[in-house]
Fold this protein.
Amino acid sequence: MKYHVTLALPLSLFAGALIVSQTAQAGTSALSQQLKDLESFQVIAHRGASGHAPESSMAALELAHGWGVDYLELDIQMTADGELVAFHDDTLERTSNGEGHINDHTLAELKALDAGSWFNEENPELADEAFEGAQILTLEEVFDRFGQDARYYLETKSPELNPGVEEGLVRRLEAFDMIETGRVLIQSFDQESLLKIHELNADIPLIQLVWYSPDAENDGRLTEWTGVTPSPDEITDADFQAVADYAVGLGTNYLFDDEPVIGEAFVQQAQDNGLAVHVYTVNDIDEMQHLIGWGVNGLFTDYADRLIELTE
Ligand code: G3P
Ligand code: CA
């Protein structure tokens, strides 16, 4: 951590130095508190309250924030002109009236899109005129709105399609003072992307995302998408420790085709090796209860309201 202690200051500078020192200490304790909180159960609003409002929209974030979730989860990508935006898919079609790859478009082009009406069409029972014309949000807009009054769980999404996203992200986190104040976790499936973030600012707590699925070419044995860990049945303490060298936790799927890919022993072993375990994306109340029973440290859910009701 980067704190400066200045000794033998002239008296006139002492008061200022004291304030700086107190701010640094407040920062230390805020970041420490965030890490301590990760030992407890965390409610992670996946793309905001995305079961109730268009994902990653201001309406979805407002709703989840109003419920008092622990983290607002967003996927971060880069526009053609270098702005950072909250958007999950690589392409625009599913959740907007745009076309093509998001990072082929400038922010002005993306801002002209309607990223809300699709939700009304897909979910007539939840449709709300207020969702029509919802804009794709920049990360700055999210920080301007919620500032230090929220915690953010930000994913470097498809970093191979968003070169420079790590530098852009760290720059903005520093500018908005989100790191030492314990406001942010960065997650990625891409280990290299996380290591870049770590290189840029070693104080940022990182979550390694993993996705386990059966490999048809290997007798259906479970494999991790990017190879960052072995199969859950074969994973060792050393494998977890290799992740714990740079990350504070693992974000993992629970099911593939309705079949569990991890068990309680996986959760326990990860925790024994110092890693928090957050499971995505869990919307069913029975599954939430089951995973809470295993002692996971948090769940990503589109329905944070359900999860809050269970955990209150
Ligand atoms: O970030 C956790 C979870 O959101 C990963 O899956 O595809 O929803 O970003 P995805
Ligand atoms: Ca995500």
Q: What stands out?
A: Residues 11-37 form the longest helix (27 residues). Residues 1-37 form one domain. Residues 1-21 have pLDDT under 50 and may be disordered.
